[in-house]
Amino acid sequence: MRILIVEDMEAPLWSFGIVIKELGDGHIVHIAKWYLQAKEMLGENQYDVVFLDHRMPYDKPRCTEDEDFKKFCAQLQDIGYGLIDFIHEKSPTTVIIGTSTLPREKIEEGGYGVPDRTVEKIDIQRKFSGIIAELSR
């Protein structure tokens, strides 16, 4: 299974890292930390599953969250779900799992595509393996 994780924050990436190690061999996992990086990866690769955050930097951040959290957060934009239509146009069978806490109504109001499923970031460790196992069938 080919998996793309689009996430800019270190804590959720740490959680993804734990569950990725538990997956075992046979899976290809890529990570994008900002919008343009994700769009480039999506343009160059086919993915079976995309875990997609909504709030992220557009381009490579000028600083990390560890260096200056306020400056890092000031670079964040509500743009990740803007990739949903692009993903579905390129690969209609890709399953998009939204990891944003943005309510569905706000997503629809913003004119963004809607993820196929959502998972709270706090539940990534608990639900990731089950989601991948289900989609692998």
What does this entry look like structurally?
- The chain has 137 residues and is of the alpha/beta class.
- It is built from 6 helices and 7 strands.
- The chain has a 5-stranded parallel beta sheet, covered by helices on one side.
- Helix 5 (104-109) links the parallel strand 6 and strand 7.
- The relative contact order is 0.20.
- The mean pLDDT is 89.
Quick recap of the structure?
With 137 residues, this protein is of the alpha/beta class.
Helical segment count: 6
Overall strand count: 7
**Regions with pLDDT < 50 over 5+ consecutive residues?**
none
Order of helices and strands: EHEHEEHEHEHEH
Q: Which outline best applies?
A: globular
Radius of gyration: 14 Å
> Can you give the mean pLDDT?
89
How much strand? 15-25%
Terminal Cα span? 11 Å
Helix content: 40-55%
Main sheet: strand order: 2-1-3-6-7
How can the largest sheet be summarized? 5 strands, parallel
Structural class: alpha/beta
